[in-house]
Amino acid sequence: MPENKPIIGLSWEPKLPQLSFGTKKSSSNKEAETSAVYKPSSELIDGLFVPPNDPKKVNKFLRKQVKDTAGKNWFDMPAQTITPELKRDLQLLKLRGAMDPKRHYKKSDLKSKALPKYFQVGTVIEPASEYYSSRLTKKERKTTITDELLSDRKLGLYRKRKVREIEEHNRPGGVDKWKIRGSQSWKRAKQRRH
Questions:
Q1: Which residues pair with residue 69 across a beta bridge?
Q2: What is the rounded radius of gyration, in angstroms, for the C-alpha atoms of the chain?
Q3: Of 33, 36, 39, which is closest to residue 57 (Cα–Cα)?
Q4: 99, 155 in Cβ contact below 8 A?
Q5: Segment Disordered: which positions (predicted)?
Q6: Phi-psi category of 73—alpha, beta or left, where left has phi over 0 and alpha has psi -120 to 50?
Q7: 86-112 mean pLDDT
Q8: Please, are residues 76 and 69 in contact by the beta-carbon 8 Å criterion?
Q9: Residue 142 and residue 136: Cα distance in Å, rounded?
Q10: Helix (DSSP H) and strand (DSSP E) numbers for the chain
Q11: DSSP category for residue 17
Q12: What sign has the CA pseudo-torsion 94, 99, 105, 110?
Protein backbone atom coordinates (compact mmCIF):
# COMPACT_ATOMS: atom_id res chain seq x y z
CA MET A 1 0.00 0.00 0.00
CA PRO A 2 1.55 3.31 -1.04
CA GLU A 3 2.06 5.78 1.83
CA ASN A 4 1.50 8.97 -0.16
CA LYS A 5 -2.13 8.06 -0.97
CA PRO A 6 -4.60 10.42 0.85
CA ILE A 7 -6.85 8.86 3.51
CA ILE A 8 -10.56 9.47 3.00
CA GLY A 9 -12.66 9.87 6.14
CA LEU A 10 -11.86 10.65 9.72
CA SER A 11 -9.41 8.89 11.95
CA TRP A 12 -8.85 9.49 15.62
CA GLU A 13 -6.47 7.96 18.12
CA PRO A 14 -6.72 8.86 21.80
CA LYS A 15 -3.51 10.04 23.44
CA LEU A 16 -3.56 8.03 26.65
CA PRO A 17 -0.71 8.50 29.11
CA GLN A 18 1.69 5.65 29.70
CA LEU A 19 0.68 3.38 32.57
CA SER A 20 3.38 2.46 35.04
CA PHE A 21 2.75 -1.03 36.37
CA GLY A 22 6.26 -1.57 37.72
CA THR A 23 7.33 -1.27 41.35
CA LYS A 24 9.61 1.65 40.60
CA LYS A 25 8.88 4.74 42.62
CA SER A 26 9.16 7.92 40.61
CA SER A 27 11.22 10.65 42.17
CA SER A 28 8.90 13.48 41.13
CA ASN A 29 5.20 13.70 42.06
CA LYS A 30 4.29 15.29 38.73
CA GLU A 31 5.29 12.15 36.84
CA ALA A 32 3.13 9.99 39.16
CA GLU A 33 0.11 12.24 38.68
CA THR A 34 0.35 12.19 34.88
CA SER A 35 1.05 8.46 34.68
CA ALA A 36 -2.25 7.47 36.32
CA VAL A 37 -5.31 6.94 34.09
CA TYR A 38 -7.76 8.38 36.65
CA LYS A 39 -7.89 12.14 36.86
CA PRO A 40 -10.24 14.45 38.75
CA SER A 41 -13.55 15.34 37.11
CA SER A 42 -12.17 18.73 36.11
CA GLU A 43 -9.45 17.06 34.04
CA LEU A 44 -10.34 15.02 31.00
CA ILE A 45 -7.99 12.79 29.07
CA ASP A 46 -7.94 13.97 25.48
CA GLY A 47 -11.47 15.34 25.88
CA LEU A 48 -12.90 12.01 27.10
CA PHE A 49 -14.20 11.00 30.50
CA VAL A 50 -12.45 8.00 31.94
CA PRO A 51 -14.36 6.30 34.78
CA PRO A 52 -12.61 6.16 38.17
CA ASN A 53 -10.79 3.09 39.45
CA ASP A 54 -12.31 3.25 42.95
CA PRO A 55 -15.36 0.87 43.16
CA LYS A 56 -17.22 3.23 45.52
CA LYS A 57 -16.87 6.08 43.07
CA VAL A 58 -17.91 3.81 40.18
CA ASN A 59 -21.09 2.76 42.02
CA LYS A 60 -21.91 6.38 42.82
CA PHE A 61 -21.37 7.30 39.17
CA LEU A 62 -23.63 4.44 38.00
CA ARG A 63 -26.40 5.48 40.43
CA LYS A 64 -26.34 8.97 38.96
CA GLN A 65 -26.63 7.56 35.44
CA VAL A 66 -29.79 5.54 36.19
CA LYS A 67 -32.85 7.46 35.03
CA ASP A 68 -35.38 8.42 37.68
CA THR A 69 -38.58 6.51 36.84
CA ALA A 70 -41.78 5.49 38.60
CA GLY A 71 -40.90 1.81 38.26
CA LYS A 72 -41.72 -1.19 36.15
CA ASN A 73 -45.36 -1.33 37.33
CA TRP A 74 -45.86 2.20 35.99
CA PHE A 75 -44.17 1.38 32.66
CA ASP A 76 -41.03 3.30 33.69
CA MET A 77 -42.74 6.69 33.63
CA PRO A 78 -39.95 9.28 33.81
CA ALA A 79 -39.82 12.08 36.36
CA GLN A 80 -40.74 15.38 34.71
CA THR A 81 -38.76 18.59 34.90
CA ILE A 82 -41.12 21.12 36.45
CA THR A 83 -41.31 24.41 34.58
CA PRO A 84 -43.21 27.46 35.95
CA GLU A 85 -46.11 26.74 33.55
CA LEU A 86 -46.36 23.11 34.67
CA LYS A 87 -46.16 24.15 38.31
CA ARG A 88 -49.10 26.56 37.87
CA ASP A 89 -51.15 23.90 36.08
CA LEU A 90 -50.49 21.34 38.84
CA GLN A 91 -51.49 23.85 41.52
CA LEU A 92 -54.71 24.60 39.62
CA LEU A 93 -55.49 20.89 39.40
CA LYS A 94 -55.12 20.64 43.18
CA LEU A 95 -57.63 23.50 43.60
CA ARG A 96 -60.07 22.22 40.96
CA GLY A 97 -62.81 21.78 43.56
CA ALA A 98 -63.11 25.56 43.95
CA MET A 99 -63.44 26.26 40.23
CA ASP A 100 -66.86 24.89 39.35
CA PRO A 101 -69.85 24.93 41.75
CA LYS A 102 -71.60 22.09 39.93
CA ARG A 103 -68.76 19.60 40.08
CA HIS A 104 -67.59 17.81 43.19
CA TYR A 105 -64.30 15.98 43.37
CA LYS A 106 -62.92 13.39 45.73
CA LYS A 107 -60.89 14.95 48.53
CA SER A 108 -57.24 14.94 47.60
CA ASP A 109 -54.21 15.39 49.78
CA LEU A 110 -54.62 19.14 50.21
CA LYS A 111 -52.39 19.20 53.27
CA SER A 112 -49.32 18.14 51.31
CA LYS A 113 -48.04 21.05 49.27
CA ALA A 114 -45.56 18.89 47.41
CA LEU A 115 -46.19 18.57 43.69
CA PRO A 116 -46.23 15.10 42.14
CA LYS A 117 -42.88 13.84 40.90
CA TYR A 118 -44.14 11.44 38.22
CA PHE A 119 -46.83 12.61 35.82
CA GLN A 120 -47.55 12.99 32.13
CA VAL A 121 -49.13 15.80 30.17
CA GLY A 122 -51.30 15.02 27.19
CA THR A 123 -53.64 16.65 24.71
CA VAL A 124 -57.37 15.91 24.70
CA ILE A 125 -58.54 14.89 21.24
CA GLU A 126 -62.30 14.79 20.72
CA PRO A 127 -63.89 12.09 18.58
CA ALA A 128 -65.49 13.01 15.25
CA SER A 129 -68.98 12.58 16.74
CA GLU A 130 -68.42 15.60 19.04
CA TYR A 131 -67.49 17.97 16.22
CA TYR A 132 -70.49 20.24 16.79
CA SER A 133 -71.48 19.45 20.38
CA SER A 134 -68.46 19.72 22.70
CA ARG A 135 -65.46 20.57 20.54
CA LEU A 136 -63.09 23.38 21.43
CA THR A 137 -62.58 25.85 18.61
CA LYS A 138 -59.11 27.08 17.64
CA LYS A 139 -59.68 30.32 19.56
CA GLU A 140 -60.65 28.42 22.70
CA ARG A 141 -57.60 26.11 22.55
CA LYS A 142 -54.78 27.36 24.74
CA THR A 143 -51.32 26.02 25.53
CA THR A 144 -51.87 25.56 29.29
CA ILE A 145 -54.80 24.90 31.62
CA THR A 146 -54.18 28.26 33.28
CA ASP A 147 -54.67 30.14 30.01
CA GLU A 148 -57.83 28.16 29.27
CA LEU A 149 -59.34 28.93 32.66
CA LEU A 150 -58.46 32.62 32.51
CA SER A 151 -60.09 32.98 29.10
CA ASP A 152 -63.34 31.25 30.22
CA ARG A 153 -66.02 33.93 30.76
CA LYS A 154 -68.36 31.80 32.88
CA LEU A 155 -65.58 30.91 35.29
CA GLY A 156 -64.50 34.56 35.49
CA LEU A 157 -68.04 35.68 36.39
CA TYR A 158 -68.33 32.91 38.99
CA ARG A 159 -64.99 33.93 40.56
CA LYS A 160 -66.02 37.60 40.74
CA ARG A 161 -69.37 36.72 42.31
CA LYS A 162 -67.75 34.48 44.92
CA VAL A 163 -65.15 37.12 45.81
CA ARG A 164 -67.92 39.72 46.18
CA GLU A 165 -69.91 37.37 48.46
CA ILE A 166 -66.89 36.71 50.66
CA GLU A 167 -66.07 40.42 50.91
CA GLU A 168 -69.66 41.26 51.86
CA HIS A 169 -69.66 38.54 54.50
CA ASN A 170 -66.40 39.81 56.03
CA ARG A 171 -67.25 43.53 55.80
CA PRO A 172 -68.36 44.94 59.13
CA GLY A 173 -71.81 46.50 59.14
CA GLY A 174 -73.58 49.14 61.26
CA VAL A 175 -71.58 50.72 64.06
CA ASP A 176 -68.58 48.39 63.55
CA LYS A 177 -67.52 50.14 60.34
CA TRP A 178 -66.47 53.21 62.38
CA LYS A 179 -64.14 51.10 64.50
CA ILE A 180 -61.98 50.38 61.49
CA ARG A 181 -60.78 53.97 61.15
CA GLY A 182 -59.88 54.30 64.81
CA SER A 183 -61.18 56.01 67.89
CA GLN A 184 -60.88 59.55 66.46
CA SER A 185 -63.43 58.91 63.71
CA TRP A 186 -65.74 57.31 66.29
CA LYS A 187 -65.66 60.53 68.36
CA ARG A 188 -66.29 62.69 65.27
CA ALA A 189 -69.27 60.59 64.29
CA LYS A 190 -70.63 60.85 67.83
CA GLN A 191 -70.28 64.66 67.73
CA ARG A 192 -72.13 64.86 64.43
CA ARG A 193 -75.05 62.90 65.82
CA HIS A 194 -75.52 65.31 68.81
A1: 78
A2: 34
A3: 39
A4: yes
A5: 17-36, 169-194
A6: alpha
A7: 83
A8: yes
A9: 10
A10: 7, 0
A11: P
A12: positive
Q: Is the pLDDT of residue 19 over 70?
A: no
Q: What are phi and psi of 69, to 5 degrees?
A: -130, 165
Question: Is the separation of the CB atoms in 105 and 98 below 8 Å?
Answer: no
**Single-letter amino acid code for the residue at 20:** S
- Look at residue 98 and give its three-state secondary structure: helix
Asked whether the CA dihedral 77, 81, 84, 87 is positive or negative, the reply is positive
The one-letter code for the residue type at 84 is P
Task: Return the amino acid letter for 106.
Answer: K
Quick one: pLDDT at residue 95?
Answer: 85
> Residue 31 has what pLDDT?
45
Indicate the residue type of 154.
K
Q: Which of 33-42, 78-87, 112-121 has the lowest mean pLDDT?
A: 33-42
Average pLDDT across the chain, whole number: 75
